[in-house]
């Protein structure tokens, strides 16, 4: 089953999916660009639905203004399945006084949010909300894993083994995908099929992409991106290479809207709907409907499908 904020659904009910995006997000690294506008989030989600979108995975983890209390109402209002995240980002995204509290009993926090309910970011030790997380979001660092990442990866792996949840990984600048796989799969025995490697378009090297696909991991491409537009033009080269190599069945696509300026409804865009009106439309034209159905329908339904435990 796929765990959404309105309950568990069968994989074939998920539909056309944005596999990596943010309705709400705030980081100390992006001052003044917080995603914290509920009406704007609803407008984005409604526009996404109007473009044919049926599901969205919000990768915003604990402590970064994920607004968990708003997600069920937004899902109902727009008629879009929302998959929420537990997890923890790089230390640099948090105020120093916040991290120690979140790191205390981290694996148990992840498990509780996956099985009992999300907590408010303002009260991480409070009562669970009715909505539960459906994935674990964690992050590597540029070409390596620092001590913070190693701690978080170990907690995420423990939570995976307790629940079965998919682990979605922010790769800094798209780097270190095989090192991340080695840490989660090799060291912590997480199946590669339960790992999503995000931001691969930001480091457009096809060799590790193919190797990760051959290992059975999910390959996340999250363009268009205002923050990383310099590599966005390589997206279709990478997708074409993976399709040619027989790995269309490992690809996930998302918009990764992380700043107010990136919203189409209230900023400069291109906004969440562009993933369908721009990217998906071009996938159909250049790679065909079979590839588009794999990227937006079949693959997300498999990647987020979990035999839930706990």
UniProtKB/TrEMBL annotation:
- State the UniProt keywords alphabetically: Hydrolase, Metal-binding
InterPro entries the record matches: Metal_Hydrolase, Phosphotriesterase
Question: What's one Pfam family here?
Answer: PTE
List N6-carboxylysine occurrences by residue: 137
Has the keyword Nuclease been applied to this entry? no
Question: What is the name listed in the Swiss-Prot or TrEMBL entry for this protein?
Answer: Phosphotriesterase
Q: Which SUPFAM superfamilies match?
A: Metallo-dependent hydrolases
Entry keyword annotation includes Lyase:
no
The record's comment on protein family reads: Belongs to the metallo-dependent hydrolases superfamily. Phosphotriesterase family.
């Amino acid at each position: 089953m796929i765990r959404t904020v309105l309950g568990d659904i069968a994989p074939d009910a998920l539909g056309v999916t944005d596999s990596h995006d943010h309705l709400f997000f705030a980081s100390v690294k992006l001052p003044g660009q917080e995603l914290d506008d509920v009406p704007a989030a609803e407008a984005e989600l409604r526009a996404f639905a109007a473009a044919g979108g049926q599901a969205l995975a919000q990768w915003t983890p604990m402590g970064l203004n994920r607004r968990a209390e708003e997600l069920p109402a937004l899902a109902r209002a727009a008629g879009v399945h929302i998959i929420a995240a537990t997890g923890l980002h790089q230390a640099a995204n948090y105020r120093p006084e916040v991290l120690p509290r979140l790191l205390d009993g981290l694996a148990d926090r992840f498990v509780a949010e996956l099985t009992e309910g999300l907590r408010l970011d303002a009260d991480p030790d409070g009562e669970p909300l009715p909505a539960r997380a459906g994935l674990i979001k964690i992050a590597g660092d540029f070409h390596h894993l620092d001590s913070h990442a190693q701690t978080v990866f170990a907690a995420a792996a423990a939570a995976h083994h307790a629940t079965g949840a998919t682990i979605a990984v922010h790769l800094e600048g798209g780097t270190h995908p095989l090192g991340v796989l080695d840490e989660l799969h090799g060291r912590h025995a997480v199946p590669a099929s339960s790992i999503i490697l995000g931001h691969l378009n930001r480091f457009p090297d096809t060799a590790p992409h193919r190797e990760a696909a051959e290992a059975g991991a999910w390959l996340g491409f999250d363009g268009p991106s205002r923050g990383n537009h310099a590599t966005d033009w390589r997206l279709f080269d990478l997708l074409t290479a993976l399709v040619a190599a027989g790995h269309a069945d490992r690809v996930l696509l998302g918009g990764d809207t992380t700043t107010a300026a990136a919203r189409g409804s209230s900023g400069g865009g291109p906004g969440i709907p562009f993933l369908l009106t721009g990217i998906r439309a071009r996938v159909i034209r250049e790679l065909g409907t079979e590839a588009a159905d794999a990227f937006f329908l079949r693959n997300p339904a498999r990647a987020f499908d979990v035999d839930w435990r706990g």
